């Protein structure tokens, strides 16, 4: 069992991992891609950069730095976290156990540019099958997504209804889907009255009682929702020790809001590491 699993290999996650390793803790970093920094090729406002760097260079340097210090950094997408006896982190490749988890997965879920989408959040649009699935027993369930995250949610939803339609919203279906209809054309509009009622696509109009959203990969807020961690304004709520309301579950960087900058993410990561170390040392072994 790891002392800490850090989910995210950006400035917050790697900074935390470097400190955690120095505390002689057994740490694993799981990351899927370049995060926010993959979207920029010009960073010049971070301390110690005499010349601008691309975002991917910054991330690659961070990962190299961590590995040089002996930190295990794996490129794996995290799909789910369970907290039973410790934390079980499920990825596309396997499962890992840890005493604590640090969420450093960057900014939260994208706002989908589908007309009507904003109108039905909380009124037929849900982000969590395990939280809300039972409300839709034997109902017409829509599920938006295309990959392993969607497939995970589908397995949960199958317990509640045989009537499920997966909408990939124009993306190719990546995951294997059984026991659900699949519509691959783009979703053009969501319609309803006070509640969501219909999903309109080029393949036709589909009546739904709910649309679960599991696009791409799960974000920190998706993990938090499933575990019952508090979220406010789409960011994870943490206390002054960077811990969520779930003991042992910490969060840092863009996923907890505030200034979206490398400097702040690095600072969060370092502070979270200090508090994780104290948390672990305070526990009877
Ligand atoms: C276009 C653009 C330009 C920017 N320019 C600047 C700038 O000039 N200066 C500056 O200071 N800041 C800049 N920023 C902001 C900066 O990129 C972020 O504030 C910073 O990267 C946040 O760090 P983070 O570690 O919290 O998250 P991120 O850097 O986003 O890292 C998130 C990590 O989580 C991982 N992850 C997410 N989900 C999963 C999952 N399910 N499984 C496994 N891993 C997962 C990702 O792979 C990634 O490794 C810019 C951002 C953008 C979008």
Number of helices: 6
Count of distinct strands: 17
Strand content: 25-35%
Main CATH class of the largest domain: Alpha Beta
What do the pLDDT scores average to? 93
Uncertain spans, ≥5 residues at pLDDT below 50? none
User: Which range best describes the helical content: under 10%, 10-25%, 25-40%, 40-55%, 55-70% or over 70%?
Assistant: 10-25%
State the end-to-end distance: 13 Å
Determine Rg (CA atoms, Å).
Answer: 20 Å
What CATH architecture of the largest domain would you give?
A: 3-Layer(bba) Sandwich
Bound molecules: flavin-adenine dinucleotide
Shape: globular
The CATH homologous superfamily of the largest domain is termed FAD/NAD(P)-binding domain
State the CATH topology of the largest domain. Answer: FAD/NAD(P)-binding domain
Could you spell the SSE succession in H and E letters? Answer: EHEHEEEEEHEHEEEEEEHEEEH
How would a textbook summarize the main sheet? Answer: 7 strands, mixed
Number of domains: 2
Short description:
With 285 residues, the protein is α/β, with parallel strands linked by helices. 24% of the residues lie in helices and 27% in strands. The protein is built from six helices and 17 strands.
Report on this structure.
- Helix content is 24%, strand content 27%.
- It is globular, with a radius of gyration of 20 Å.
- It is built from 6 helices and 17 strands.
- The strands form 4 sheets. Strands 1, 2, 3, 4, 5, 6 and 17 form a 7-stranded mixed β-sheet that branches. It has a 5-stranded parallel β-sheet with strand order 7-14-8-9-10, covered by helices on one side. A 3-stranded antiparallel β-sheet has the order 11-12-13, with no helix packed on it.
- The chain folds into 2 domains: 2-109 and 219-281, FAD/NAD(P)-binding domain (3-Layer(bba) Sandwich); 118-213, FAD/NAD(P)-binding domain (3-Layer(bba) Sandwich).
- The protein starts with a strand and ends with a helix.
- The chain has helices at residues 11-22, 55-68, 129-132, 148-157, 220-227, 262-281; strands at residues 2-7, 27-31, 72-75, 78-84, 86-91, 95-103, 125-126, 141-144, 164-167, 181-183, 187-192, 196-201, 204-207, 210-213, 231-232, 235-236, 249-251.
- By secondary structure, the protein is of the alpha/beta class.
- Helix 1 runs parallel beside helix 2 and helix 1 packs parallel to helix 6 (262-281).
- The protein binds flavin-adenine dinucleotide.
